[in-house]
Amino acid sequence: MGSTLFEKIWDQHSICDLGDGNELIYIDRIFLHERTGSIALKSLEERKVPIRNPNQVFATIDHIVDTFPGRGDKTLMPSGSDFIRSLRASVKGTKIHFFDIDDLNQGIVHVVSPEQGIALPGITYICPDSHTCSLGALGTLAWGVGSTECEHALATNTLIKKKPKLMKIMVDGILPLGVTSKDIILHLISQHGADGAKDHAIEFMGSVVENLEIESRLTLCNMAVEFGATTGIIAPDNKTISYLEGKAFSPEEDFNKAKHYWSELKTDQDAIFDKTITIDCSNITPYVTWGTNPQQAIPISHSIPFVDQIKNKNEKESMIRALEYMGLEQGQSINNQKIDAAFIGSCTNSRISDLRSAAKILKDKKIADNIRAICVPGSSQVKKQAEEEGLDRIFKSAGFEWRESGCSMCFFAGGESFGENQRVISTTNRNFENRQGKSTRTHLASPMTVAASAIAGKISDAKSIGIEQ
Amino acid sequence: MKSFKTFSGIAAPLIRVNIDTDAIIPSREIKTVSKKGLSGGLFAEWRYLSLESRKESPDFILNQDPFKKASILVTGNNFGCGSSREHAVWALSEWGIRAIIAPSYGSIFYSNCIKNGILPIVMDGRVISSMSEFIKDNPEENRLTVNLIKNEVSYSNEVIETFVIQKQDKEFLINGLDQIEQTLQKNSIISEFETLHKKTNPWLNAS
User: Fold this and answer.
1) Is B85's CB within 8 Å of A120's CB?
2) Is the model's pTM score more than 0.80?
3) Pick from A16, A223, B13, B37: most CB atoms within 10 A?
4) Helix/strand/coil for A68
5) Do A82 and B33 touch (CB under 8 A)?
6) B45 in a domain, yes or no?
7) What is the CATH number assigned to the segment(s) A5-275?
């Protein structure tokens, strides 16, 4: 019997069996940010426990830092600078690779990581951040951990872990024009629930996945955690190899050796998964969430379900609560729902291809009156690239604010928010109650949908407002 | 870390599905680089009428007597989904929660509980429903007893429900061991593995 990609990487990193299904797993690379990395480092310092291999550790500032032009350590979030300064003080004098606020390579941890070749195929990789699963797109065995586990990994380069169950998701068919990997993952979560992949690591396969560019694969894997999965992974292929060539932390003299290893790294034909889901993308249309959990998502052309359609009592109550929070009615159409704001950014959709796809729609257009629209590039490199291509001018002349990179308004940490009852269409990953601010109503969608909706002033499919894709 | 084997306590039924860690502790309530001082932010959006005044909302279960003294939270599936913030567990623990009973959990949240001495019990939704009815009947008197040695939750004199927990998680909760120290005792085999591993994957040493 063959093995899956996940098992191959796992077994290659298993130091020993600890009994009861647990194994001691070697962790190759660790990435930290100021929000949760600061406390992990501080806690180790207080206990006088050294970091085992600082040169396998990376750190950036993304979560709390402001994204206004001319930003510095001072943050709109009260006490935000404490997190920045604490992280900076902890990495100072160590061999940890640090991307400080003014570093040309600063950015959102999960955007910087592939961009710099830090996440690589076949390695184990953790970060105290739930969206670490994004990096599975490169064939990296990557997952999010809490602070305590992060401390354990920093101190020992290991984690004690039980192998999760394995799920294969076959993504076949032909992805229609204007439909993105964001729509695929929202479709999956809406069909199978926010805990649909609970206790499983997912391998995404199939012709659609093979045809996706690396950045779209990152979006797909990014929301594996919103599907309840331990992580998501995609086998490395020629696209992965050429994407990684020449990146700062990719292998240099060993690139050919690495390349050879990576191209062999795939699930065997006869490998067995615990569960398989097959989807045909040919009929998927752009999705948007209507509720307060990513599973409460529908195609833009559909109506919000009726409460009575939901059988489970708790799910029914959750739906009533979500409708009330969102200020929406059961059975109503989501298309043309008026919006107050649009946000393009976050570790889900802030890479150069995301910005290009939104800019294509925004070119020579203006956003609707009274809409606040913000674009936050995922990294300083993405921002630079976008500016070289003139995308910043397209965003600005359409009426978007153009920001410095960071996590920004994906969540409200006490700094900026969209305000109470404001309806925001957003390329982020979580539409939880109060996530983007007190009583802010979040609708998750792809960058194209967000751009089209910003122009229309209401939730709109890019196609339906007559924009050629 | 406090270790525990068995205890009885007031249980609060907060039956909602998909309660995320943003709801357990909103990001803006994480104000310092510390694992302490977080209980004030627990369920802040639901618990207070206004975040500024901190006036308690009488409708929220943990503000009501006797649930103010609850040490067990009974809740819906996928509890603790979302952000990996361990602050959610630190806040629950500091507030006084020692065990949670839910049909399922967010996976990072689950391991964060184990690391911080909170017992995350997995139970079927139907069991949780009848447990909630029993509690609501007389919350002060109808306490739950959690026995981690026997993997049991008992309520009233008659009903005993068993639960499954990984042996290692159980031992960890009972003994309250320091995992870093434990693992560092294996340093020689880690080093041996590491040397060989880096020889076959020479690109791991980033410089």
Assistant:
1) no
2) yes
3) A223
4) coil
5) yes
6) yes
7) 3.30.499.10
